[in-house]
Amino acid sequence: MIKGSIVAIVTPMTPAGEVDFDALAALVEWHVAEGTDAIVAVGTTGESATLSVDEHIAVVRKVVEVSAKRVPVLAGTGANSTSEAIELTQLAKGAGADACLIVTPYYNKPPQEGLYRHFKAIAEAVSIPIVLYNVPGRTGCDMLPATVARLALIPNIIGIKEAKGELGRVRELLALGLPKDFALYTGDDATARESMLLGFHGDISVTANVAPKQMHDMCVAAIAGDAATAGMIDSRLSLLHKNLFIDPNPIPTKWALEAMGRIRGGIRLPLVPMNPDHVNVVRESLRAAGAL
User: Fold this and answer.
1) Of 174, 172, 6, 150, which Cα lies nearest the Cα of 75?
2) Is residue 116 among the annotated active site residues?
3) What is the SS3 assignment for 5?
4) Going by fewer Cβ within 10 Å, which terminus of the chain is more open, N or C?
5) Whose CA is closest to 195, among 1, 2, 4, 42?
6) Domains in the chain, CATH or no CATH each
7) Percent of the chain beyond pLDDT 90?
8) What is the pTM of this model?
9) 181-230 pLDDT, tens per residue?
10) Contact 243, 251 (CB under 8 A)
């Protein structure tokens, strides 16, 4: 089981909007050096919604190549079409991903039985470990704990990223009696520390993009039950947890990485550069965390 800080890595782009593979490789090297425990390529933060299939798989392949088995790589392969999600998952497996992170179908709002059959179909079609991803604030679809419990019985569905952002949901999942090797990850940095102190295994994180060592250290402490150390580290990160979402993700994160000199300022429509009124807020958040 992967534990700890799992970065939902950005996809660097040139000012013209082309994928910047050199900057991506440098980010991966930095994360390995800073202690990031695993990398999610082409998730929401990686602008998966605006990449072509060829670009999507090329990004996964580059992250796999550069990480060189030093850290596990999860590929985002969700879609609101089951057949498309199967295709992306097959391609990601072929590109060398260790596992796939698959979001609930967005926009078409399937019922719980539809969610179950969607993920079951993908798991049966592609023999790769699958982590479910629930983020109702983006998808308009909430996968309930009872559905997670059903899916956890499928052998290659190995975990869930729960990003509802409510500790009540964290407690519900912990109370299900899921298999001991079923991984529970939070996808909400603001409640990550509490989630791990309660028993979650890690955080699939946006904040880790700009503060990888701090997020790794906080996760290690929280998973070990060291509330004092986890709280001390997390208090310095709290402004990042909040203000990296002051504009839609990943707009502020990409601005922050550019300010840190790690990427150029490219982003794709319909996303746009960060609102200038928010620059000082994000800059001060980076300084508070010791990231700038």
Assistant:
1) 6
2) no
3) strand
4) N
5) 4
6) 4-226 (3.20.20.70)
7) 100
8) 0.97
9) 999 999 999 999 999 999 999 999 999 999 999 999 999 999 999 999 99
10) no
